[in-house]
Design brief:
mainly alpha
């Protein structure tokens, strides 16, 4: 790889990644659009004012794993 070539991965092995294709970029944008509404619903829910400020992040991270815990 020459000094002017972009490398999208810090991994030393293998060839440099060319980055996302146009189709992949569009899929990522579509996914991000779909996630905005549920994200907004979760972070603005009145429940979060009942959680101690220092524990909000921990509680939200636990919420992400609820479906895994319910399956066990």
């Amino acid at each position: 790889m020459s000094a002017g070539e972009a490398r999208y991965s810090e991994a030393p092995e293998g060839a440099p990644s060319p980055g996302y294709t146009g189709q992949q970029r569009e899929r990522v944008r579509a996914f991000e659009r779909r996630m905005r509404r549920p994200t907004a619903l979760v972070i603005t829910d009145p429940f979060w004012v009942t959680v101690e400020r220092e524990k909000v992040v921990e509680a939200r991270m636990a919420l992400k794993r609820v479906h895994v815990l319910e399956q066990a």
